[in-house]
Amino acid sequence: LFKSLMNPFWRPPNLVIHPNITYATSEELRDALDNSNQDFDQPRKLMLDVITSNKKSTKPRPVLIHVHGGAWRGGRKDIFYPYEKLLVSEDDWIIVNIGYRLAPKSAYPNHLIDVKRAIRWTRQNIASFGGDPDFIVFSGDSAGAHLAAMASLTANDPQYQPGFEQVDTSCRGVVSVNGVLDLTYSNMINYFSKQVAMLSDVNMDFLNKHSPTTVIQQTKDCVPYLVLAGQRDALVNSDVSVKFKKQFDEARHKNPCTLVLFPGGRHISYIAWSPRSLYAARIIQTWCRQLHNDELR
Description:
CATH architecture: 3-Layer(aba) Sandwich
Shape: globular
Mean pLDDT: 91
Radius of gyration: 18 Å
Strand order of the largest sheet: 1-2-4-3-5-6-7-8
CATH class: Alpha Beta
Strand content: 15-25%
CATH topology: Rossmann fold
Number of helices: 11
């Protein structure tokens, strides 16, 4: 098994991939075109992949929705992460890898709205793939972790659910991998304001409103979090995750935030197979497994 896992191209046997499923409504697709001067690449961003196994199961399978990273301006949904492979092959989870529109053509918070549209689709359709619509975990890496966290922290907020205000967009837990969980640190303020939100100037009120480290202090009954960070990450300092954990604990949420720091971990060391990424994958797998087991008790 270890030799298989160390092969970066290894995929679990009996894998079933349902690619490029459009999660937006026809009206949302038209709006995406109209707001981008008929850029037909924009509707193609509003797609997701469902990954499952062909094992027979009599019980609904737990679901993980993953939001890819890429600095809110790049990235793609097609990466099949090591921990996703473990969850599908060993724990019979269903993975939903989602795409979303990117800056500069689509300004934040459109990213967040798109993530919630994908959650809506999953809630309404995943049962037909054998998934449990009542047990959904969010995960994300880098900028995707920011979006996963914000989706959790703004669950059922009508401001970010235009046209589907009554849909339940909550989750059972969040996994952040090298996540950008604070928009107010020095090298993020200008970048996010002007290159992601496409604002003409810095707006600290806006940044605080969309910074998980700030929002977590104002949110009640937060779901459990697993936060992983590499201490040699040159793009997102691990202090960001440490600060999030501190703010989470100080808010006295009834659920825990588990922080795991990797002394030699770099920003994308979790993507390709390596001893470090396998270790991280096992941590995520164990945390997700325990979360689901607690639900079944």
